[in-house]
Amino acid sequence: MSTSIMRLSFRLLNRLFMVPVFRLGLGSFFGNPFSGYIMVLKTVGRKSGRARYAPVNYALRAGQVYCLAGFGEGTHWLRNLQAEPRLEAILPGGAIAGRAALVSDPAERLALVRQVLKNGGFAGFMEGFNPFTVPDEELARRTAAMPLVRIQPVGPGNGASDPAGWAWVWTVVFLAALLAWLIWK
């Protein structure tokens, strides 16, 4: 599959499904070894100044959150973070506010790139190798153009039940269904 078709497919899937799922508070139902462990980054658009959402696979280590810009330096959310490193990460278990930085230490990078790819489920295999068994040298070579981002948590973020979230939709749907049931009972 060409890179442009893959990017368009991910953009549609992310915008129409993954971002709403996390904003509705249902992110924890979609993380598993097959589909991967996913979080949604909320960045500030470098041109528009508006909130931008991007689902990514991630890994946790020592209180830090790591993600990989699989499409390289041109990845929109990465460019947004380079302009404004403050972000929010909506993880399946809750949201954090954080500060992003690129990882440059080769040993840290190699270990965390491997872990993010392992946590990526089927997406971890889309690069044409097995992240569980590929030798370190080949992994480093094949992922050299993919920046690794470390997110240092600085506090709580806006989750699904907070003002920017959509968890309130479930209350409205439930009450509307209850009202309809009571009227047509």
Helix and strand topology:
Elements: H1 3-23, E1 38-44, E2 51-61, E3 64-68, H2 76-83, E4 86-91, E5 94-102, H3 106-119, H4 136-142, E6 148-156, H5 168-184
Antiparallel strand pairs: 1-2, 1-4, 2-3, 3-6, 4-5, 5-6
Q: What is the compact description of this entry?
A:
By secondary structure, this protein is an alpha+beta fold.
Descriptive overview:
- The protein is α+β, with helices and mostly antiparallel strands and 185 residues long.
- The protein has helices spanning 3-23, 76-83, 106-119, 136-142, 168-184; strands spanning 38-44, 51-61, 64-68, 86-91, 94-102, 148-156.
- Helix content is 36%, strand content 25%.
- The protein has a single domain, classed as Pnp Oxidase, Chain A (Roll).
- The radius of gyration is 18 Å and the shape is globular.
- The model has no long low-confidence stretch (mean pLDDT 90).
- It has a six-stranded antiparallel beta barrel.
- The longest helix has 21 residues, at 3-23.
- The relative contact order is 0.17.
Question: Which tags fit this structure?
Answer:
185 residues; alpha+beta; Pnp Oxidase, Chain A; globular
- Secondary-structure element order, as H and E? HEEEHEEHHEH
CATH superfamily membership: Electron Transport, Fmn-binding Protein, Chain A
How are strands sequenced across the largest beta sheet? 1-2-3-6-5-4
Q: Could you give a short account of the major beta sheet?
A: 6 strands, antiparallel, barrel
